[in-house]
Amino acid sequence: MRITAVRVYGYTLTYVHGRFVMSGERAVTALPSTVVCLETDQGLAGWGETCPLGPAYLPAFAEGARAALRELAPALLGLDPRQLNLVHAAMEATLRGHGYAKSAVDMACWDLLGRATGQPVATLLGGRLRDTLALYVAVPLGPPEAMAAHVRACRAEGYRRFQLKVGGDPREDAARVRAVVAATEDEDLIIADANAGWTFADAAVAVRQLEPLDRVFLEQPCPTLEQCLAVRRRTTLPMVLDECITDVRALLRAAGQGVEAVNLKINRVGGLTRARQLRDLAESLGVRVTVEDSWGGDVATAAIAQLAASTAPQTLFTVSFMNAWSREHIAGGEPRSDRGRGLVPQGPGLGVTVDESRLGTPLFTVP
Ligand code: MG
Questions:
Q1: Catalytic option among 165, 176, 288, 341
Q2: Which of 47, 104, 155, 173 could form a disulfide with 36 if both were Cys (CB 3.0 to 4.6 A apart)?
Q3: How many CB atoms lie within 10 A of CB 270?
Q4: Using N-to-C axis directions, what is the helix angle for 144-157 and 170-182, rounded to 10°?
Q5: What is the mean pLDDT of residues 166-177?
Q6: Could you tell me the distance, in angstroms and rounded to a whole number, from the CA of residue 331 to the centre of ligand 1?
Q7: Are 333 and 41 in contact (CB under 8 A)?
Q8: Vertex 355 angle, CA 350 and 360, to 5°
């Protein structure tokens, strides 16, 4: 099988709840997403998607992904998409870094490998272990009562896992978390995610305030891994690391300091191939993983579902179906969420069918 054409599309994803607010006054209402289609000489097409969470979240942004894909696309022609390591070697030889752009190509190759073999990607990633996934919802940073109301509404829908955006004034953040704890029950999981928004001093104040709150996890309190690990050493709050887990070395450092869980965002780590490597290493180290992406629509969510479905129960922490957070759908809203659970697609490859009419004219096509 050979790649004969690369088509790259852009479309907009609009956040379903208005403004998605994170620390540092970063707010998102809509994001440009980028979709890659790889056509082959055997009539099969594979799809991938990458959607950075705006230009101020990680060193990644939509126009960067598109420019990188313009560089990469000619080098993909003639390659066998089922030979993932060869595809990655060709991409590395063409462009260093920009894993968030390569992620869409990697995803499309996994889709093709699955379609060519008649297997869901989950089977190829280690085994399809479950049909549904317990999802979390992210609660935008806002006044404590607004955050508690958001959580109550999601609880009524069936969600039991909540990631609260914090990272402002640490005492106000503690009030936000307390309001949400009061709106939930013992079975619920609450993760206070500062998105690297606290200084080390802020984090020291915050953990003192949050320490007595049962069932609260702290996520990415400070910008660097070193700062987060220093916070980890002074608190009994269980910790999730996200933005700073960029590679194997960071994961090993975090595991060595007893960090309980890490978030694997598929495009941050460079695609499903790297995400699987980190997932398997985390499992060996006894670290739990949340499977998600920076953002994305139906295709990115299908990749999340396949990786999460193949992750061992003792390792899988939680999952987000990013397509439930946006209004626009390019594969009929699949994979679906239902009462706080995500349904894993059944078909081969990523298991979703892209409706090209939803994407309009490609941004570019090679050749
Ligand atoms: Mg996070």
A1: 165
A2: 104
A3: 24
A4: 30
A5: 97
A6: 26
A7: no
A8: 125
SS3 18: coil
DSSP string covering 226-288: HHHHHHHHT--S-EEE-TT--SHHHHHHHHHTT--EEEEEHHHHTSHHHHHHHHHHHHHHT-E
Mean pLDDT calculated for residue range 264-279? 98
The alpha carbon of 28 and the centre of ligand 1 are apart by a number of angstroms equal to 15
| Residues 6+ away with beta carbon under 8 Å from 127 | 310
Which pLDDT value is given to residue 211? 94
Distance 114 CA to ligand 1 centre (A): 30
Helix axes 248-256, 225-233, angle to 10 degrees: 10
Q: What mean pLDDT comes out for the span 280-301?
A: 98
Distance CA 105, CA 111 (A): 10
- Cβ neighbors of 236 (< 8 A, separation 6 or more) are 211
Centre of ligand 1 to C-alpha 6, Å, is 32
102 is catalytic: no
Distance 292 CA to ligand 1 centre (A): 10
CA of 228 to the centre of ligand 1 (A): 13
pLDDT at residue 301 is higher than 90: yes
Give dist(CA 187, CA 205) in Å, integer: 27
Of how many residues is the chain composed?
367
Q: How far away, in angstroms, is 43 Cα from ligand 1 center?
A: 39
Q: Is 165 a catalytic residue?
A: yes
C-alpha distances out from residue 351 to 111, 185, 265, 287, Å: 8, 35, 20, 28
Question: E strands along 57-185, which residues?
Answer: 132-134, 137-139, 161-165
Catalytic residue among 160, 265, 274, 279: 265
Give the pairing type, strands 216-219 and 239-241. parallel
